[in-house]
Amino acid sequence: MANLLLLLFLLPIHRSISTVGLTLDRLGIEGRLSTDPADVEDSSVDFGGFARAEPVAVLHPGSVEDIVGLVRSAYESARGFGVSARGHGHSINGQAQADGGVVIEMSRMSRRPSVGSSAQGLYADVWGGELWIDVLRSTLEYGLAPRSWTDYLYLSVGGTLSNGGISGQAFNHGPQISNVFQLDVVTGKGELVTCSREDNRELFYGVLGGLGQFGIITRARIALEPAPQRVRWIRVLYSKFSAFTKDQEYLISLHGKPASQRFDYVEGFVIVDDGLINNWRSSFSSARNPVKISSLGADGGVLYSLEMTKNYCESTAHMVDQEVEALMKKLHFIPSSVFTTDLPYVDFLDRVHKGELKLRSKGLWNVPHPWLNLFVPRSQIADFDAGVFRGILGNKTSGPILIYPMNKNKWDSKSSVVTPDEDVFYLVALLRSALDNGAETQTLEHLTHQNQRILSFCKEAGIKVKQYLPHYTTQEEWKDHFGDKWSIFLRRKREFDPKCILAPGQRIFKRSSPPYSSSS
Question: Which residues are catalytic?
Fold first, then answer.
């Protein structure tokens, strides 16, 4: 430990050395603590592409003990330094960065998930830096899969559990943080603690959705279910927002019913330009005859797509048509707009990655992503539609806009996540890419300004949104975000990370001004 402290103290002096200490065997570290410029550069940026913060060093852990040792060194050091756990680097505003500190590259270390069962049910024990796509591949060998997903599987387990983890299954199973039995966590004191709903409960609930503020997740016990073999994937269009949301809310009200009486996945998205409407159906058929939004009677030039799936296996395939038909009869979509395809379960879950590969091939993946994710109360979603979808956005979006409702009772109120105070709330995710193609409406400056306009509109209109994957810079903003949970959040910080070492990139607390003054 003393050697590690000395090494960290000397790191700024050794910045010109490509890798400090080689394998560091003599310092008791199984992995590698690096100041290699390439490692530092990779850990200085993220998927958002517009926030940059350079760490002093990057830890490639070889064991959980490496992480314990690093955090404990930071805690015991008189000078101190920030520590951030980085999974796949998919944060937007530098949340996983550590300016002048150390970034732990969690996904560089991999451990094969182990599958088991307990009184709680089937589970997989998973390394915190494991990507969800690898969890899926491992559990499928046993005919099993996690119950709740994110739309993009190349994210780390610890990363999504530190935020929430949502997709179209959340209306029925809840977010990913509602499907965890147990965690191993390295706290800001450098202590490795096993926690669950029964043991060390305060840490367990604090870490879930806790934005990395109370501990680094090194192991998660994830709930599993029998994996289906295939998926019936359906998309339909609406020209009226009221009909669209009425049908979405009806479908999520079927949560808890037998699988034969509900869909397994419910999402939706907004279409405001002709280019996106043809991309919308590209997963289902070749777009030889382009569709015009105006030809479908769009209200204010905007269409809404409802997306649903029905899971099945060979033994239940003969029932799929009948079950889908019974559910579709109760919906109010444009009759001519039904697009359907059947595909393997894995291909559906990994659908976003296929889009990623196409964008990479065109050089359009590694661009700035000024995303904005909001939870909007059900009672105010029509006001949001009028002011944003049919107002601020205009007729160009520069990326998909997701919108779908979730049931609040599927979210555990004891976790750190904050959601609107209504039984049903919507995710609105503006997943835009900034492009340098000469179009002013697709520049980073324009999209960032538009995000601010949306937030200002919500504030002025009294729409009580909560940011998902939140980003704030002032004390009052963070307090307002957490609301009644702020005092609990603060108490947990005092208990589990009293020196404000962890996740400094979130900019919630300042390490230099204890006890826990928020950023200003």
Answer: 90, 151, 267
